[in-house]
Amino acid sequence: SGHPAPARPNKDLNSVHGVAANDCWAVGKKDGANANIIHWDGSSWTSASAPTVPNEDLKGIHMVSATEGYVTGKDGTFAVWDGSTWTSQVSPTAKEINAIAFVPGGGGSGGVQLVHWTEVIQ
Hints:
The chain has strands at about 15-20, 25-30, 35-40, 45, 60-65, 70-75, 80, 85-90, 100, 110-115.
């Protein structure tokens, strides 16, 4: 069964990840002046306040736990969730980061991998 999305932001979503039935996050295209990060609490989707996250299209999200998560996006956008706040971090690149993943068993203790896709057409 589907769950209704919030009235705002009405923007494309690019990635979703959850750690529990009542703790799921999604990111997508920027929404006016705000980064598009939304949270599912088991009954409804709400927009997350993330004032330090640049207003860029967000491409990837990976949640390790309720108190650790990572967001990536356009122009090297990279942010971390600590259980209460999304905080922008210094990025290793100014290029678009399309996804983030973890080495099995690596968690957030040195196992973070940022992935950048470059299409080569011959």
